[in-house]
Amino acid sequence: MSMSSILLIEELQPSECNLIQESSQDGKSLWLSGIFMQADLKNRNGRNYPLSEIAAAVEGSKNRITEQNGIMGELDHPQSLQINLDRVSHVITELWMQGNNAFGKAKLLNTPMGQIAQELIKSGVKVGVSSRGAGNVNESGGVTGFNFITVDIVAQPSAPNAYPGSVYESLQLAKNGHNIVTLAEQVRHDDAAQKYLKKEIMKWLSEGLFAKR
Q1: Domain boundaries, the chain
Q2: pLDDT band for position 80 (50/70/90)?
């Protein structure tokens, strides 16, 4: 049976957060650090990425990171391979292999989508990551010819073992954080709450964070 290249989106579940202190010329910065992709493990989508495919994706990304000063990612993954500039929330600055896992580090930007992600994380909400790419999938779920595009930030992770930890210099709970945490928990169990959560976040940002400008 012939195989055709398809869009592949794989999400990761939470693990323990890693909080680390780092100095920065820009002052306080928020990062995500942890497992970004996994190999030789069947995920909830029933797909299995051989170690050679993930290792090749990581190795190929190093030139992109160097030449482009990082790989851009979005808040919530789109159903396409194109990176939408108006939804960029972070930039991946490092990717490396450790065993069967691809670890990464990404800096959250002060874009509108990046600010939403920052406020959620500072309020105690855990976010997941979702790798995006294209490849061939055989009948048993094995992936070949994987073309890695980026890693996006998502609300509901769904594949086996990872959730990047937030890396924040001077950790503080944002004002009204409890409300956002409550809404975020509702999103996990009620799809209808997703639109309301986004609306409330944008309202919060416009009344608070954006009002300071």
Answers
A1: 6-174
A2: confident
